[in-house]
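User: What would this chain look like folded?
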Amino acid sequence: MFREQMIKTSLGKATDFRWRGHEISRIEGLSDAVFGFAVTLLVVSLEVPKTFNELAEIMRGFGAFAISFALLFGVWFNHYKFFRRYGLQDTTTVVLSGVLLFVVLFYVYPLKFLFSTLVDRLMGGHGEVRLPNGNVEAAIEPGQMASVMIIFDIGYLAVFAVFFLLFWHAFRKREELELNALEVFDTRISLQEMALNCGIALLSLAIVLLGGPSYAGVAGLAYMLTGVVLGTNGMIMGRRRRRMARQFASASE
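Assistant: Here's the prediction, encoded as structure tokens.
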């Protein structure tokens, strides 16, 4: 199993945060199966193309698949790191993980639909689809883009809200887990990152709710702030952590 190999090689252990989860729990096994199924649902076509035109149509969906896969992998990797760092298997952790898996499965198709439409337009398409009965319709009508953004915003917010609650749960159990000062600081950084992602989703949601359908594009552009906001936070907190690590090392000598 991929997760087992990552544990053996300590892949993802970027800092000196001690890992407390060394065995794969049942909820982790379930999450692997769910994420695997979610990725399967993202596949453009389950049938081998019979003509070059069919192959070309499938290849047009590669960009949307790549973006959606990257987002799902990021969610899975955060979940993986949480269990490695804290090793929690209590009721709260299981329930929150179950909620996360529900959200992931529920939003696979909306995620695929949104990015398939956006990539198609970026590649010069007209955002049209051919229905089984042969009719050609617009994938998204002009007045529907706001609803699409609201659906995406709620899903994005739900995922990172669950992660915030997971890390908050671990933070509350810091004494029980015997987290040292650096590990507590790293947990706070994770909480900040999840809160910032939630804030961006709320900003996008507020734009489309207050501005209406004409501001749906602006709401989508709000997510471009993610890299800037998280990058700035990472630099600031990284400098603080390095200072703290030096003090921690000096105190340990």
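The chain has a mean pLDDT of 84. If you want, I can go into more detail on any region.
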